[in-house]
Amino acid sequence: MEVHNITWRGINIEIVYVHAQFELVDHVQLYTHPRTPLPMTETGYRSHFIAAGSVAEYGGALAYVTDWLDTEAERVGWNGAQMSLF
Known about the structure:
Helices cover 24% and strands 38% of the residues.
């Protein structure tokens, strides 16, 4: 298990990465401190399972998560810690 802390667009994010969990999948968890929305979660927490080896192919957990955040922010037009009630 790897644990990393990054600041992305001013948001503190803890990344927990487990390679080949259950020998089948890579598992990435994101936690924001304090709980702050991200482009792919309004709660500040996200658990994500992908094919084993996918994170390594991206160059590691930091590269994978940073690209994921940037891609989702662009896709949804995310401009910051925003929540929608509708």
